[in-house]
Specification:
With 300 residues, this protein is mainly α. 55% of the residues lie in helices and 4% in strands.
């Protein structure tokens, strides 16, 4: 049966994820990687794809445990296989979905690392503004924190999508979905400074004319470069937290929610499909709780 030709099936699944589901390249790669793990298991056990039943999925998960795979990874794998077998039902008339009753392991909800406003100010103050890169890096941090962007959205930000006169920027998020995000006066001020006084002196490589943030060779910055910029600043101020570009996104959302922002508005700004993803930011800062008890409880 054609369904047992893994190379053909995976290529069709890739096209399905790209055109039917509109997923990003990174998400598609993750799905295909999960399916490839299951392919190895099936081939090792001489198990035809069209004969897979629920017990085979359970045995596969048990097999994975021998490699000390975390519950989070197991949960993601199950989600990927559910999507894969749903695709087979839709496109290849597979009669039964063997993943239908398979449950993912329960996951504890880990709160994201968040920077305080003081820590953000310290990181920004550590930037050497006497260099061309320093002015650019200051702008990068202001935009990351001021708009709550993903690192992929930051490095792909385009000049044609900046509407600074009405204080909005347009970004392309996961699944090529576009959204408008308000941008504050501080970020606008530094963006204009960068665009007017720094970027014009860079010799721009062909194809990067519309990209906002460029390296010294005139090309778009890489994700790794943004990580290195932030890591270097964290070391300079002796920050004990492990941070990444995403930490600024977490801080953006957390500070908005703690300040009383409507959760639906924060959801729209972050580009979350589900409100439950945004609800993680409704945690209240532990230091604040401690200070309230210390200040007001009669037994403190």
């Amino acid at each position: 049966m054609e369904i047992d030709n893994w190379n053909v099936i995976k290529k069709e699944f890739e096209q399905f994820l790209k055109f039917e589901r509109g997923l990003s390249i990174n998400s598609i790669d993750a799905y295909l990687n999960d399916v490839s793990k299951f392919q190895i298991y099936c081939e090792d056990n001489h198990l035809p794809l069209h004969q897979v039943v629920r017990k085979d999925i359970q045995d596969f998960l048990h097999w994975l445990q021998e490699f000390n795979i975390s519950p989070y990874t197991q949960s993601r794998l199950i989600s990927g296989l559910k999507t894969f077998f749903s695709f087979l039902i839709i496109e290849h008339d597979l009669e039964n979905n063997p993943t239908e009753l398979v449950q993912a392991p329960r996951l504890s909800r880990k709160l994201p690392s968040v920077l305080s406003i003081h820590e953000i100010d310290q990181l920004i103050a550590a930037i050497d503004l006497s260099t061309v890169e320093g002015g650019r890096n200051r702008t990068i941090l202001e935009v990351l924190y001021g708009c709550g962007l993903r690192v992929s959205e930051l490095i792909n930000l385009r000049i044609s999508n900046l509407f600074l006169d009405v204080e909005f920027v347009k970004v392309e998020g996961k699944g090529s979905k576009e959204r408008l995000i308000p941008i504050g006066q501080q970020a606008i001020k530094h963006l204009k400074l960068y665009l007017d006084t720094i970027r014009p002196h860079i010799t721009i490589k062909s194809g990067n004319e519309d990209i906002v943030f460029l390296n010294r060779r005139g090309s778009a910055l890489s994700r790794v470069m943004i990580f290195l910029i932030i890591k270097d600043l964290a070391q300079k101020i002796g920050l004990q937290k492990t941070i990444s570009p995403h930490t600024f996104r977490h801080s953006f959302a957390s500070h908005l929610v703690e300040g009383g922002a409507d959760l639906r508005a924060v959801q729209d700004m972050l580009g979350h499909e589900s409100i439950t993803t945004t609800e993680i930011y409704t945690h209240i800062d532990r230091d604040y709780l401690h200070s309230v008890i210390t200040q007001y409880h009669p037994r403190s």
